Amino acid sequence: MSDVTIDQTVFLTLVRTTREITGARLLIESIRSFGGTMSQYPIWVFEVDRERAPCKSLESTNVQVLPLSVPDTVKHYYFGDKVYACARSEEMANGQVQTLIWIDPSCLVISPPLLFILDPSHDAAVRPVHIRNVGLPQTEPLDGFWRKIYEAIGVEDIQTTVETFIGGLRIRSYFNSHAFAIDPSRGLLGQWFDYFEILVGDQEYQISACNDEFHKVFLHQAILSTLLVTSFDLKRLRILPPDYNYPYNLHQSVPEDRRALALNDLVCIAYEDRPLDPNVMDDINIQEPLRSWLADHAAVK
User: I need a surface site. Which of 30, 31, 110, 251 has the fewest CB within 10 A?
Assistant: First the structure.
């Protein structure tokens, strides 16, 4: 990967399937259309299994498709490829990139995501989780799932908390990973992969506290969250506002006082399986030019 173009800020995403290639194309076009001063930033697209899902068609100016050979230790585990892609991007940054911005291919950029750009006083930018899922309230004792993660990283417990966007539940610090930014010089992404590989390979843990799909799916997110609050000074952790990573996929579950009224008011959204045709998106206001842009791209999606 010696031919990778280096810049101060780089967007990252990953594709595994034809469907994700389509999503990544929309994500890239949304960055180019609505990213403002960030619209031409380099984008690295990691591609898992190039033979099965070739996506050379994504390559364009400042967009590079990078084959990713995921280690067998995590290859078949939920989001093992994502964690490894982030670790590889950190290596590729090689001291020349100030900010890596990860965005899942099931997300769109609607306004310039300027708060993802890290200044010298911040090491990462993240949103709290939307819903609790495996999150643990501060008032409850540690369960086996989180205790093992904390033990692996070398802490007994953490005292910091966040509030879930839906439900307003106060839980131990636990962050959403649809999109986040990080300073690669801190080395946290490599640590993320190392601890992920250790815990995935811990057979006793995998058949006990992490034995169901629910916990396996969110293991990567729990490890990243723990590393963020134990590796960085909390003052250097930028907590993003609700218009970042807005969960349009959960829009109907968002409390009315927090529910977005217009899609245009948001910076970036996660939509996952929800349609992007403005003619059927009848639960939120969509103004121009976004409405026409979505209409033009709905057929592609």
Answer: 251
